[in-house]
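Quick note —
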Amino acid sequence: MPGNSDQSRIDQARADKAFPVSWDQFHRDARVLAWRLNGAGPFQALAAVTRGGLVPAAIVARELGIRTIDTICLASYDHTSKGDMTILKGVSDQIAQLCGKDGRGLLVVDDLVDTGSTARVVREMFPQAHIAAVYAKPMGKPLVDTFITEVSQDTWIFFPWDTGLSFQPPIRDGAA
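Predicted structure written out below.
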C-alpha cells in the first residue's frame, strides 16, 4: 500500500527532526515575544490566527494589556495533508473600523510561520498589520515582523496542546 509507506516516511521524518515544546517552554517563549513586541506598538487590537495562535495571543494580550481581541480563522491542512488556504472567518467589523482597511495598529499573533502561506493571506488582508509568531522557519521568516526562535524548514514542532505526557524508556533500554 503506497499510502501507508508514504505516511510512514512522513512520520519518520517528523521523528528525525522533532522539536518538542513543553507548556513551560512555550509560555516562556510567548512572554519573550510579548517583551519584544512591547516597543513595537502601540497596538489597538490583537487578532489570533486560529487555532495555533490562540494560546500565544492570550499570553501576549495579557502581557501587553491588550483587551480588544479577535480571531482570523484560516485552514490549509490537517495533521497529515495540505490543501488550499481557506478563510473561515475574518476579523469583526469593530476591529476593521478600529484599525482601518490596512490594519495599522493591529497585532496578528500565530504560533508558527512555516511556508508563509498563512502570513501571506493575513498580509493581503491587512498590509500594515504587525505579524508576530513564536517560531519561524526559513521560508516563512521574511513574512513576519517579529518572531522568537528559528528552526530549520524540515523540523517538525510538537506543540504542547498536540501531545500528551507519556513514559520515556531510558536510553540504555533502546530509546532514542
